[in-house]
């Protein structure tokens, strides 16, 4: 009998001849694994977010089969396991409330089990950061496979983008430019295949972040879900993760500070979602990398937006894939990237993209002739947002990027819904709409309600945008001059809580400032009279509000920041 320390953590379960090894092997054999499979080959955990409550990930059982093929081909031992899945469209009060919970599920499932390497199947918005965060805290060799976007929506002979089209058409109905019947017709036309939203919403943005971090094979982000090249990429990823285990290519070797800087730049170039800000901050936090809100402005705001895809542009993810996808974008901005960054295929980012072709310059523009010269995410500061707020200038109306207006305040989302279409509401297009109590603690979970629909009476004038400010997030598929993630949030006693209707607010994105024109003395008086809103008193929501960090830190739970690695826990019997 050898007393040598087992080479792989799975051998702490499956190796040896004692009572415990009997139990671990015997119970596994009932799934059809002959005795020789326990010989120390890499055990690959396939972390699956399949769920019919997550329509965007409902094709993941098939996808997992291709992964397994690849793992077996490379001599690995695939074991698929489910984790909590977060369906953006169904889950209330917001899928974001459960991102951190799902990440705990992922982390503990990996650490507590005989797993040597991990393949993450991620799709719908929050499933990607949740899995990346959980896996990062374990730091095993890990590779990501995204579910892929849907095929373009088709409505009455035209392309229609998921999410973005909903926001647009619902405003058209309210403005009297579209009938209810037409609106209902569009329901069956928008989401017509498996996959995630096919705009550059949060799902495609985060898939692009995974790819630009180097955590997937090149090309992973944009292949449409029904395109069989997606299945082949899954199979190749299955093969590759086995090799990564043999090479001991752990996440910390790929997800370095340079990798995060690359991702931030790619986010600007693709016109990515503001949600990437909170998610990358949280993932970096799990890696022990000090990423700051200011890094987004410093690294991204000089960047051009090259990708003409909704919501910033015109086309959809299917077009983006045919045009060359993320590798083509990264090749175009390669002078602004850390090309030595190591990626999951064992090659450097620079090697991966050096020959990446672009097939359509309408969809992926050049740095010399960009789609929008200044993109990225701007970080605003001021007495209304001492710890920062974010805005995506590429999705805003240029004329509103510097705007002074009278605040019209809504105390929470119910207050907003009750009054927004009231003809007596004192509001016009020059006002600034302010929404409170929609941040991490306030909603709770920081819902995507920041892109407040405009008042009907303003829409009827043909106005399509107004300045809006909140502590909420907005859907990655949304657009407008929308200031988000105001920190500290209202429910935590941030200055946003003190704004009153009639106050003047000055937004100046060029100066990166957000100023409430109320004296410090008056704000102190208002603060003395302020009382916090009631908080949940049991269950996960209670744990969440007691421990969630503010948006500028990534909205992770304070005790989850950092990593515990994946040491083998003590035996269970
Ligand atoms: Fe699932 Fe958009 S709702 S990806
Ligand atoms: Mg969303």
TrEMBL record:
The keyword Lyase applies. NCBIfam families: PRK06131.1, PRK13016.1, PRK13017.1. Pfam families: ILV_EDD_C (PF24877), ILVD_EDD_N (PF00920). Keywords: Iron, Iron-sulfur, Lyase, Metal-binding. Residues 41-352 form the Dihydroxy-acid/6-phosphogluconate dehydratase N-terminal domain. Belongs to the IlvD/Edd family. PROSITE patterns: ILVD_EDD_1 (PS00886). It comes from the Bacteria. The lineage of its organism: Bacteria, Pseudomonadati, Pseudomonadota, Betaproteobacteria, Burkholderiales. InterPro entries: Dihydro-acid_dehy_C, DiOHA_6PGluconate_deHydtase_CS, ILV_EDD_C, ILV_EDD_N, IlvD/EDD_N, Sugar_Degrad_Dehydratases. Residues 362-555 form the Dihydroxy-acid/6-phosphogluconate dehydratase C-terminal domain. SUPFAM superfamilies: IlvD/EDD N-terminal domain-like, LeuD/IlvD-like. One of its GO terms (molecular function) is iron-sulfur cluster binding. It comes from Noviherbaspirillum galbum. This is Dihydroxy-acid dehydratase.
């Amino acid at each position: 009998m050898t007393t040598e320390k087992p080479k792989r953590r799975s051998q702490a379960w499956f190796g040896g001849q004692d009572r415990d090894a009997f139990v671990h092997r015997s119970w596994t054999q009932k799934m059809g694994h002959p005795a020789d499979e326990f010989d120390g080959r890499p055990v690959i955990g396939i972390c699956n977010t399949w769920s019919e409550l997550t329509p965007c990930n409902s094709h993941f059982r098939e996808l997992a089969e291709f992964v397994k093929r690849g793992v077996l081909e490379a001599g690995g031992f695939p074991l698929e396991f489910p984790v909590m899945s977060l369906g953006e469209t169904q889950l209330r009060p917001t899928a974001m409330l459960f991102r951190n919970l799902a990440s705990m599920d992922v982390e503990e499932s990996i650490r507590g089990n005989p797993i040597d390497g991990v393949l993450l199947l991620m799709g719908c918005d929050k499933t990607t950061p949740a899995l990346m965060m959980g896996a990062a805290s374990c730091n095993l060799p890990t590779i990501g496979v995204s579910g892929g976007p849907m095929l373009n929506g088709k409505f009455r002979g035209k392309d229609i983008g998921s999410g973005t089209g909903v926001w647009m058409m619902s405003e058209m109905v309210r403005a009297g430019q579209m009938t209810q019947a037409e609106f209902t017709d569009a329901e069956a036309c928008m989401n017509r295949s498996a996959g995630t939203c096919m705009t550059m919403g949060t799902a495609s943005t985060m898939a692009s972040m995974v790819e630009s971090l180097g955590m997937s094979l090149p090309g992973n982000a944009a292949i449409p879900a029904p395109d069989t090249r997606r299945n082949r990429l899954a199979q190749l990823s299955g093969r590759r993760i086995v090799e990564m285990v043999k090479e001991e290519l752990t996440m910390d070797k790929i997800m370095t500070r340079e990798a995060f800087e690359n991702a931030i730049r790619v986010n600007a170039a693709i016109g990515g979602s503001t949600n990437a800000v909170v998610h990358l901050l949280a993932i970096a936090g799990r890696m022990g990398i000090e990423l700051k809100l200011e890094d987004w402005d410093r690294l991204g705001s000089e960047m051009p937006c090259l990708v003409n895809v909704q919501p910033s542009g015109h086309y959809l993810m299917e077009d983006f894939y045919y045009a060359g996808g993320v590798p083509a974008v990264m090749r175009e901005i390669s002078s602004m990237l850390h090309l030595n960054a190591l990626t999951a295929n064992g090659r450097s980012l620079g090697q991966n993209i050096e020959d990446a072709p672009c097939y359509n310059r309408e969809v992926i523009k050049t740095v010399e002739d960009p789609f929008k010269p200044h993109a990225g995410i701007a970080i605003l500061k001021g007495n209304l947002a001492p710890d920062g707020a974010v805005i995506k200038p590429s999705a805003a109306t240029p004329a509103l990027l510097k705007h002074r207006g009278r605040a019209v305040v809504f105390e929470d989302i119910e207050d907003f819904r009750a009054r927004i279409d009231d003809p007596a509401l004192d509001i016009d297009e020059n006002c600034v709409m302010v929404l409170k109590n929609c941040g991490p603690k306030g909603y709770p979970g920081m819902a995507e309600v920041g892109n407040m629909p405009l008042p009907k009476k303003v829409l009827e004038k043909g106005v399509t945008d107004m300045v809006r400010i909140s502590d909420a997030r907005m859907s990655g598929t949304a657009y407008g001059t929308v200031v988000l993630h105001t920190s500290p949030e209202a429910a935590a006693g941030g200055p946003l809580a003190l704004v009153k209707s009639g106050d003047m607010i000055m937004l100046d994105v060029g100066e990166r400032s957000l100023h409430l024109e109320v004296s410090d003395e008056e704000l102190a008086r208002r603060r003395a009279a302020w009382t916090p809103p009631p908080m949940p008193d049991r269950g996960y929501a209670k744990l969440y509000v007691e421990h969630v960090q503010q948006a500028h830190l990534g909205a992770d739970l304070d005790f989850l920041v950092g990593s515990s690695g994946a040491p083998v826990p003590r035996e269970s019997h």
